[in-house]
Amino acid sequence: MIDGQPEHNLGFGPAAVLQAMKSSVKLLRWGLLLLALIYLASGVAVVGPNETAFVLRFGKLQPGLHGSGLLLALPQPVDEVVKVPTRSVQEIQLDAWESSAQAPGFGATLNPVWDGYTLTADANIIRARFSARYQVSDCVAYALTVKNQPALLEAVLYQAATDVIARMKVDDVFAAGLEALRAQAMRGAQARLDQLGLGVQLLAFEVREIIPARQVVPAFQDVVSARVESQTLIEQANSYSASELPGAKAAAYRRKQEADAYAQDLLAKATGEAEAFEAIDQQYRIAPQLMRTRLYADAMGTILQHLQSTTILQPSAGSLKLLLQPSYSLPLLPAPQMIRERD
Amino acid sequence: MKTQIIVRGLIGALVGALLLFVMLTFQVRQNERVVLTRFGRPVRVLVEPGLYGKWLWPIETVNRFDARLDFYDARISEALTRDRRNVIIPVYVAWRIEDPLKFLQSLGNVENARSKLDGLVTSARNTVLGGYDFGQLVSTNRDEVKIPEIEHAITELVAQQGKQSFGIAVEQVGIKRLTLPEANTEFVFERMRAERAQFAAQYRAEGQQRADEVRAKTDADKTVILADARKYAEETRGKAEAEAARIYRTAHEKDPSLYKFLRELDALKQITATNTTVVLDTATPPFDLLRPAPKDE
Fold first, then answer.
1. With bands split at pLDDT 50, 70 and 90, how would you rate the model's confidence at A100?
2. Which stretch, A94-108, B71-85, B271-285, has highest mean pLDDT?
3. Which ranges in chain B are annotated with CATH 3.30.479.30?
4. Does the pLDDT value for residue A273 go beyond 70?
5. Which of B4, B178, B209, B288 should we substitute to test contact with A (largest number of A Cβ atoms within 10 Å)?
6. How does pLDDT run across B28-38, given as a tens digit for each residue?
7. Is B260 part of the contact surface with chain A (CB cutoff 8 Å)?
8. pLDDT of A158 over the 90 cut
9. Which of A4, B43, B134, B238 could pair covalently with B85 via S-S, beta carbons 3.0-4.6 A apart?
10. How many Å lie between the alpha carbon of A225 and the closest alpha carbon of chain B?
């Protein structure tokens, strides 16, 4: 080439070059046609099963929304197809108030810049994690009203939670008020989103975690254990009550039964004896002396059988001296006088 | 040959037209605002979306602004409430460009706008908070909390200035959190601990008291039940004894002398148990039988 022999080095000669150019132009023509076709077809878009699309023609919104399927639009720069995932439920995690946020370890204080927290109605510091689920309800508004939708959504949700918690006592937040917090925050956030015209429908607002600041967790736990202890004390007392009262009732029942039985016994005995007395009396009235003698004789028979010794003295035998051992006692026997009286 | 020339000419014309079209037109998207400047001097403000014509580049320039809502977190700083409490209240601002011409002239771009807004919001927040007490930020009385009112006041203040000076519409200002200066949190923790300790003590005391009450009541109930039973038993016994006495009396009244006689015989039987030594005279029946019979009988 340097030596000035170009023809030889070309290898084919001018005719061959011309021929090659002609055929490549032909190829180029087809290529161009193909490119033109591809360009014309570039406006055709596939709208996914969870999406809704709309068309901007020369930047101007065209009426009509397009569901999933093939959307025949004109190529750029005439038409622009904007696709928005309207059917899928999107989730957003709100972890900025997380207890284990960036701060390494924990000291006695909380830094407002990187320790996320808020204040309750009674000025207690609490931390929380939330999550929210939402769906795009108006795809045009969603795409054309707000620049950074998730960030704004997040800010609005935090605002709503702050507003609700600022009216709730710390004990309510941790217990019964959780449901109210959830519902009210969601309502508040939705109102704000509607005010901004974001085109988003909140489906759920969940409180994944809500706790006091780590610095005071032991104090809160102590309250919980105090509650348990108090409950235990009460339950022990209740079980004492449950075990003691039936015993007392049983004892009382037994006592009453005994008294009833005694009364019945007594009355039966009295009635029996009264009846027996009346029966004797009837006989006695018929022949008093006979009855008396018989009874007396019966009695004496029984008595004398039991006696160890009997000494019988003449009444005219003069004075009587008794020498008794200490273990013996002289029975009181007014009997002679008594019987004599009866005579 | 002739048709080939025509085709080529057509293609050339098409490409040329396309080139001119691209160079001499521009679009305003649905969400955009455009200020067209000729050698830096604004000549047209375009708010409606669509296709517009313009002169070639160095002559006319298209300044596009996204008119969608922008969201911005204001810088954190301390503020003072009316009752002299230091608070730190992070806020967000939702704003958009309303007057693109004024925006272009006063700020030029979004970064400038944010830093300007920051100043506006901070000063508005401090001003507004100075008119409210701490008790209107957090309160157990729901109606005392004025957060929406405070937000509204800040929005009003910022919106007014933003619109007048920068062509910005501030649509919403929201309080994202309620926090305190770091040094204050320690005292808050102390107070929270004290509060909790008080609650814990209260629970324990209440539990003890309740348990004592239950036990005392149990003991009292027990006593009452047993006393009731005792009373019933005594009454029943008493009544039975009275009744028995009445029965005896009714029977014995019919013949007191027989009764006396029988009772005496019974007493005699009971008194004279075994190992009793009795000294009797022979006048006692039936021993009188041992005596010689009286002569006249």
1. low
2. B71-85
3. 70-180
4. yes
5. B178
6. 888 899 999 99
7. no
8. yes
9. B134
10. 8
Pick the closest to residue A264 from B232, B243, B252 (CA basis).
B243
Cross-chain Cβ contact A274/B250 below 8 Å: yes
Which chain A residues are closer than 8 Å to B207 by Cβ? Answer: 226, 229-234
Closest Cα in chain A, distance from residue B270 (Å): 9
| Identity of the amino acid at B131 | G
Return contacts of A287-295, CB within 8 angstroms, 24+ apart.
Answer: A292/A342, A292/B261, A295/B261, A295/B262, A295/B265
Q: What is the pLDDT of residue A279?
A: 87
Does residue B203 have a pLDDT over 90? yes
- Which of A108, A300, A302 comes nearest B186 by C-beta? A108
Domain B70-180 in this protein, CATH class = alpha beta
Domain range list for chain A: 6-84, 90-102+109-212
Whether B114 and B164 have beta carbons less than 8 Å apart is answered as no
B residues 200..229 contacting A (CB < 8 A)? 200-201, 203-204, 206-208, 210-215, 217-219, 221-222, 225-226, 228-229
- Condensed to tens digits (0 to 9), the pLDDT of residues A197-209 reads 889 999 999 998 8
- 3-class DSSP assignment, residue A118: strand
Tokens 């132009």 map to which residue?
A25
Question: Scanning the structure block, which residue is given the tokens 């490409």?
Answer: B15
Neighbour-count burial of A327, counting CB atoms closer than 10 A to its CB (0-12 exposed, 13-18 middle, 19+ buried): exposed
Say what the ipTM of the complex is: 0.74
CATH class of A90-102+109-212: alpha beta
Provide the CA A146 distance to its chain's centre, in angstroms: 41
